[in-house]
Amino acid sequence: MTELNKKQSMTDFYAEPSEVVLTNLHSSVEGLSGSEAQNRLTEYGKNELAEGKKKSLFMKFVEQFKDFMILVLLAAAIISAVVSHEIVDSVIILLVVIINALMGVFQEAKAEQAIEALKQMSTPNANVLRDGHTLSIKSDELVPGDIVLLEAGDVVPADIRLLEAASLKIEEAALTGESVPVEKTTIVLPAGDIGIGDRVNMAFSNSNVTYGRGKGVVVNTGMSTEVGKIADMLAQADETETPLKNNLNDLGKFLTMAIIAIAVIMFIVGTLINGTSFVDMLLTSISLAVAAIPEGLPAIVTIILALGTQVMAKRNSVIRKLPAVETLGSTDIIASDKTGTLTLNQMTVEKLYDDFQQKPAKSVVGTENLSLKIMNYANDTKIAQDGTLIGDPTETALVQFGIDQKFNIKSCLEKEPRVGELPFDSDRKLMSTVHQLANGKYLVAVKGAPDVLIQRTTRVYVDGQEVLMNEKQRNEILFNNADMAKQALRVLAMGFKYMDELPQELTSEVLETDLCYAGLVGMIDPERKEAAEAVRMAKEAGIRPIMITGDHKDTAEAIAVRLGIIHAGNSNAVLTGAELNEMSDAEFAKQVYNYSVYARVSPEHKVRIVKAWQQEGKVVAMTGDGVNDAPSLKQADIGIGMGITGTEVSKGASDMVLADDNFATIVVAVEEGRKVFSNIQKTVQYLLAANLGEVLTLFIATLFAWDTLLPIHLLWINLVTDTFPAIALGMEPAEKDLMSHKPRGRSSNLFSGGVFSSIIYQGILEGGLTLFVYWFAIQNPAHTALNMPELSAQALYNLQHADALTMCFATLGFMQLFHAFNVKSVKQSIFKVGPFRNKTFNWAILLSFALMGVIILVPGLNDIFRVASLNGTQWGVVTGASFSIIPIVEIVKFVQRKLSSQKVEEAVIE
């Protein structure tokens, strides 16, 4: 952006007379000359959005290695290869890390398309005045000072100060969030901070002209436009760290410190107390540290998240970034855009008031109803061959109402054709059409603002008759107009009169005076049918819904009440963008809990709202479908775009896209997100309890100078018992009470909810039972000097030790598989959650049991793994010790539930 362009982008053109704007831009109503336009194109650059920096695939791959857990694993792999010479371990760890990185790159390859999508929205051509002639040029060749002509159907090619506006209406929902097209004028607005939606003398880039025509001067192009500012916000927005990413980083730091501490203690004890050599003890300590790291955890977490994306895709939630699956489960706040998300973004007739009765739109009013006829006659909507309605959304709503009431507008206009009209004018606030009747007379159909039309009426149509309007009737009409307006309905009035002759001049004084009042019609952009139920379900799950819109305060409040976001009469819970501007960030943060609805907000406001909740430690999900939502979608912990009505910009900035645009799908996605996190917790609990059992087994064995497990045993146990069951635990069905819990929020972690204490006592249990079996085997050998007198003492000891080593190895491996059933629920009994509900889990356990057994039972393999064949008694001890972890953990869980229940009862009594 050049310095001049920067200066212009900060000018309040809406507060300056058009002559001053033209003078400042060195332009005129005749437009620029071709040479001047070319000079300015060189000075300002093309009217297009700058592309954001693209990350190469290599950089995306490198960024996957920034996680602390990944760095720890890489360090472990290097230490294992260089110091311990465990090449197999190193290769496995490196493969796990690389596969994890590749999956991350694959999932996020298309994550940065928001700026490109914004660029593609530009209209290809624009009609401009150059050298006094009208030309059609590519919109990227527009420059400040160009005079642009606008008409219905055009996309505004740049930010324009309007010089002329004839019944001009522009739909700005994608930019401001306001569902109703804005009536444009050329009036000079007061100086000061006026919201985009209220700058009625401006037309903004990428908005749509729905009605009328206009002419204006280009004041900003490219990145200086309002859409360009949004693009710049997107480019500068920081990516928020997901709770899962933070949890895994915290877990990696905790494990590293714990493992280093254990390894140091083990090294000191081994060298100073047991007298083991410095080098041997160093290698043993490093081996222990490497064995203690759950090298498969990052890959398993990635797989669980990927499986979650598949489930959610089947339920109409398309995940663009893997961590978004889990982030949904921790959501405290759903900040939802109103237009097109909670509502249909489609104006709809809701009430009709005629014959002094309010009637719901669903009631049958009859095709002869005069109000119905007038709202369809005084209407410029076009009906395409496929039945699509083309025109201003307010007018198409009236025609759709007629279609729903079986009113055949085409047939009626053939019988009573339009022979004259007065187009809508923002000063008159009326539109009139003249129709020739079969009896030779003419019908004047008028619709417009109720307060204006009522002033021009002298009669009222009641029970099929025209009667003089009295003051009581006038007041009743005005009362019902106000009543419908309070319900956030956009109200129009219908009037008519009959004329014997078609006037020579069709003027407002001739056509729009001495009218007969026919009725009122109330319209609204209605809430989605499923949205209110989704809001209720979100509240039950402890999630607070927040509504954000560019609409006016009354409309926002009415829709929020209908959805159940706020209670009727609670207008204090509604904050406007202008009121938000008066607050500092610190002041707003203190009051953010007071507001559930935000009206007349800009893109900057939306980002402030999201940040304020995030500063309160809340995990924020933001839904939206417009260009104006993109910065806040990117700022939020999880941005949710709309797949059908959403712009490509909003989808590109989102972490998740709703394929069906159904707000209720978010609640389903939250449940899936909670399930995913719960399953990740189960996996962490399973893996860390297993690794703690291994660490304690090796650590205590070292203290007693026992030779319990060899490196190959640890490698095989980690490969067989950690991988398949851990992945299968990620596919566990959701527990029944999952959605009755409050959101865990940003402060919780993978150890929350009793997971940490479970890891500790279950790891101690695994290590203790394994060491007990080793001790039992040594104390009760199957090979003795009595039945094998021919063997030397050393040979006999080797056989006894081989049996003890095998039993120790088998017990630890099988016990971990049995323990996998325990972690199906942290607190509930496995018999309540169903031990065999997960078929994938069942097969994974069977496969792991088979792989553990085969290396002990199959000759040749047992030699490779340095294990011996066991007799029936020994297998009985191994099986009993391994299985005992299930009843022991069940007893502990039972005691925990009783103590927890007792605490709740005591709290209630107090």
Q: Percent helix among the residues?
A: 40-55%
Give the amount of beta strand, in percent: 15-25%
Spans of at least 5 consecutive residues whose pLDDT stays below 50 are: 1-10, 110-123
Shape: elongated
**Helix segment count?**
36
Q: What is the average of the pLDDT values?
A: 83
Largest sheet: 9 strands, mixed
- Secondary structural class: alpha+beta
Number of strands: 26
Backbone CA Rg:
37 Å
- State the end-to-end CA separation: 66 Å
What does the secondary structure layout of this molecule look like, with pairings?
Elements: H1 3-9, H2 18-24, H3 34-44, H4 57-63, H5 68-82, H6 87-108, H7 114-120, E1 125-130, E2 133-138, E3 147-151, E4 159-171, H8 173-176, E5 182-183, E6 202-203, E7 208-220, H9 226-236, H10 243-273, H11 278-292, H12 297-314, E8 317-319, H13 323-329, E9 333-337, H14 338-342, E10 348-354, E11 357-360, H15 370-377, E12 382-383, E13 389-390, H16 393-404, H17 409-415, E14 418-425, E15 430-436, E16 442-448, H18 450-455, E17 457-462, E18 465-468, H19 471-486, E19 490-499, H20 508-511, E20 515-524, H21 531-540, E21 544-548, H22 553-563, E22 574-576, H23 577-581, H24 585-591, E23 597-599, H25 603-615, E24 620-624, H26 630-635, E25 638-642, H27 648-652, E26 656-658, H28 664-703, H29 711-729, H30 755-779, H31 793-822, H32 830-833, H33 839-857, H34 861-864, H35 872-883, H36 885-909
